[in-house]
Amino acid sequence: QVQLVESGGGLVQAGGSLRLDCSASRSILSANVMGWYRQCPGKEREWVARIRYGGNTDYADSVKGRFTISRDNAKNTVYLQMNSLQPEDTAVYYCMYTWKYWGQGTQVTVSS
Length: 112
Prior knowledge:
By secondary structure, the chain is an all-beta fold. It is built from no helices and 11 strands.
């Protein structure tokens, strides 16, 4: 079992930045992939970014160039740095561990 706890969400104005943290209850070195998804009310959960064991990263087109995913293996934590936030980024953001374990989510609200 892996528990994931997200933090860092909140309310920000358009153009602002937030950093989301995802703290895992066990070593993330054993995860071949970790990532972030988001879900807007009434919509399906969508993939945002992922980071693989070797450090390779991938991003959804909608966030490419604005969001950066990274990991600190010593702290068992994955981060999502979000810059140039827009109202359409408003969603609940979920951390994912190998697509098997999910966090509870953290709300990000971007005002126009």
